[in-house]
Amino acid sequence: MNYFLSIILIFLIFEYILEIISKYYNLRSLKTNLPLEFNNFYSQKKYTLSQEYTRENIKFTIYTSTLNLLIMISVISFGGFNYLDLFLRNFNINNDVFLGVLYFVIIILFNTILSLPKSYYSTFYIEQKYGFNKSTKTLFVSDTVKQIFLSMIIGSIIIFLLLSTYEYIGQYAWLFCWFFLSIIIVLMPIIYINIIAPIFNKFQKLEDGTLKEKIQYYSQKVKFPLSEIYIVDGSKRSSHSNAYFTGFGSNKRIVLFDTLLKNHTDDEIIAIIAHEVGHYKKKHIVTNTVISIFSIGIMFYLLEFFIKNQLLFDAFKMDYISNYAGIVFFSILYSPINVFLSIVLNAYSRKNEFDADKYSVETIDDKKNLILALKNLSVSNLSNLNPHPFYVFLNYSHPPILKRIEAIQNLK
Ligand SMILES: [Zn+2]
């Protein structure tokens, strides 16, 4: 067997087994006794509900991962990538860049359509059953249509530019692509908040009042360059809550989900904002951006060696060699490195969460409200209080809630 094909298949299966084992452990580590920390906070009934929610979600993702694995292996073994290529070549498009854009667009579309039943079931059965879903079928359809159009437009532009570079520049194409994608990574938060997010949600400035005064007072105290505070209507789709901020230099915006305002006291919200400010002050956001730029640099450099590798094309049963298909195949070959990277980055991110909690406690000079906020968040999100350490190691970007509370309590 072609050794690229062996590597790809072995890894796809290995990754799948790893996932199933970690999920199995996670299911087994669900405990029926309410942790002491949450006494008087969670009713036994609601706690049991949170475990059913976790159990149902894990089981559902086991089914979808199994299905995805089977689809991927079938597409590869039956030469699906070649059939698509041959089909598009029938149209006599004599330009490899356009051919490549079409190739990618169809793959993206195929992926989106495949994921539709999954997100429909998750939204209207699981989230609905546990009272999280606030979305309607009309909203779901309009979201889907918008998402497909957006991913087609943004995807086509990026792919067009990347493929043109490989087609016309040749030798140093990887450097240009790296540079170009780095700019996108840096600008993406701005593009997201100004162009993409408003397509899906309404943003309103926070009205004057005690909460606004408290936020402003806090940002002045810690010298955080806050320009605006926005409320986003997250409750339109789901009752899960969140807070984040975006912007460059002295122009920072804080965005709060309306659900956050509903479920938390002003002081808890300040503690959450202080945690977000902590990420900024401790340079986590800058570091993360630098890490992603660095890692895509390595990826583009490695791509050079594989983009027109005959053996790699044989693995996918291709009749023709092309840059666009080479990029698709390389991205599949690269996935073990991605899995490894995400484990390392998750560990780093968990460490950063502890640091941001510490910053919040130190600058507010109070542990109580952050702990309350974390407890309220996990109760209202029905978070799993006892995830298995192996599952956390593989998947969690945030430490389990009880570990965070413990770390906060141990702070001086
Ligand atoms: Zn955080």
Percent helix range: over 70%
Number of helices: 16
Beta fraction: under 5%
**Total strands:** 4
Distance between the termini: 60 Å
Shape: globular
SSE run: HHHHHHEHEEEHHHHHHHHH
| Largest sheet features | 4 strands, mixed
Indicate the radius of gyration in whole angstroms: 24 Å
* Small molecules (ligands, ions, cofactors) in the structure: zinc ion
Sheet with most strands: strand arrangement:
1-2-4-3
Overall average residue pLDDT:
90
Stretches with pLDDT under 50, minimum 5 residues = none
Quickly give the structural class.
mainly alpha
Summed up, the domain count is 1
Key terms:
mainly alpha, 4-stranded mixed sheet
Topology:
Layout: H1 3-28, H2 44-77, H3 80-89, H4 96-129, H5 137-168, H6 173-200, E1 203-205, H7 210-221, E2 226-232, E3 243-246, E4 252-257, H8 258-263, H9 266-281, H10 284-306, H11 310-315, H12 323-333, H13 335-364, H14 368-380, H15 389-395, H16 401-409
Parallel strand pairs: 2-4
Antiparallel strand pairs: 1-2, 3-4
Helix pairs in contact: 1-2, 1-15, 4-5, 4-12, 5-6, 6-10, 7-9, 9-13, 9-14
Bound molecules: zinc ion.
Give an overview in words.
It is a single chain. Helix content is 72%, strand content 5%. With 412 residues, it is mainly alpha-helical. The protein has one domain (3-202, 281-409). A four-stranded mixed beta sheet has the order 1-2-4-3, with helices on both faces. 23% of the residues are buried. The mean pLDDT is 90. Bound molecules: zinc ion. The site of zinc ion has 4 residues, from helix 9 and helix 13.
